[in-house]
């Protein structure tokens, strides 16, 4: 069972790359964004709670995020592994993920970080916002707030995974094929 965390700021290309990687390696793509949107669309209690935070551009609290993710993993049968997209975002979430995976005798194999300049990413997100319908993709101030949240809460995860020799930075600028090749080179050598 291979578990890979795909890391990066909003607009870094996690979702795009996850589509290629899940096919190539037969992984289940678990996007917290997709899980949130499913719960919000279906007006679950967890979805309503998550939406109240997302509408402000804040990160959803750990307890809500973890519960949604655990349900998604438990509902998956016969997977060869998981590609975690947008989770964990905090040190507490990383520790909870490790504990949850340990209950299944699994572990995180690698954390791969797509890295790119903030201004390039902001333009990507604003472009995505023209078609995504997501309010948090259409407001530059909210996007910058999300990046500030990322820097404060998510960036420390790099040290956590570096200490475990599981952190792999990848240049997130280039063609989709170039970036996919960079990611595949890492996964092939795990």
Description of the structure:
The structure is a single chain. The chain is of the alpha/beta class and 190 residues long. The model has no long low-confidence stretch (mean pLDDT 90). Strands 2-3-1-4-5 form a five-stranded parallel beta sheet, sandwiched between helices. The chain is built from nine helices and five strands, in the order βαβαααβαβαααβα. The protein has helices at residues 14-25, 32-41, 45-54, 62-74, 91-103, 118-132, 140-154, 157-163, 176-188; strands at residues 2-7, 28-31, 81-85, 110-115, 167-171. Helix 2 packs across helix 4 (62-74), helix 4 packs parallel to helix 5 and helix 6 crosses helix 7 (140-154).
List the strand order in the largest sheet.
2-3-1-4-5
Query: What Rg, in angstroms, do the CA atoms define?
Result: 16 Å
Percent helix = 55-70%
Structural class: alpha/beta
What is the helix tally?
A: 9
Major sheet characteristics: 5 strands, parallel
**Residue-averaged pLDDT:** 90
Share in β-strands: 5-15%
Envelope shape: globular
Task: Report how far apart the termini are.
Answer: 12 Å
The poorly predicted ranges are: none
Total number of beta strands: 5
Helix-strand pattern, N to C? EHEHHHEHEHHHEH
Secondary structure layout plus pairing:
Blueprint: E1 2-7, H1 14-25, E2 28-31, H2 32-41, H3 45-54, H4 62-74, E3 81-85, H5 91-103, E4 110-115, H6 118-132, H7 140-154, H8 157-163, E5 167-171, H9 176-188
Parallel strand pairs: 1-3, 1-4, 2-3, 4-5
Helix pairs in contact: 1-9, 2-3, 2-4, 4-5, 6-7
């Amino acid at each position: 069972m291979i578990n890979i965390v795909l890391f990066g700021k909003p607009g870094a290309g996690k979702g795009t790359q996850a589509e290629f990687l899940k096919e190539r390696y037969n992984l289940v793509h678990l996007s917290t964004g997709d899980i949130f949107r499913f719960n919000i669309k279906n007006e679950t209690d967890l979805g309503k709670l998550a939406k109240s935070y997302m509408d402000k551009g804040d990160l959803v609290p750990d307890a809500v995020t973890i519960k949604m993710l655990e349900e998604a993993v438990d509902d998956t049968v016969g997977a060869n592994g998981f590609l975690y997209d947008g989770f964990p975002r905090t040190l507490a979430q990383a520790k909870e993920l490790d504990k949850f995976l340990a209950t299944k005798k699994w572990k995180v194999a690698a954390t791969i970080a797509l890295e790119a300049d903030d201004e390039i990413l902001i333009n990507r997100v604003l472009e995505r916002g023209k078609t995504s319908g997501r309010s948090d993709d259409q407001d530059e101030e909210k996007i910058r707030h999300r990046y500030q949240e990322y820097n404060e809460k998510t960036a420390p995860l790099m040290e956590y995974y570096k200490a475990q020799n599981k952190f792999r930075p990848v240049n997130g600028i280039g063609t989709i094929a170039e970036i996919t090749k960079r990611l595949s080179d890492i996964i092939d050598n795990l």
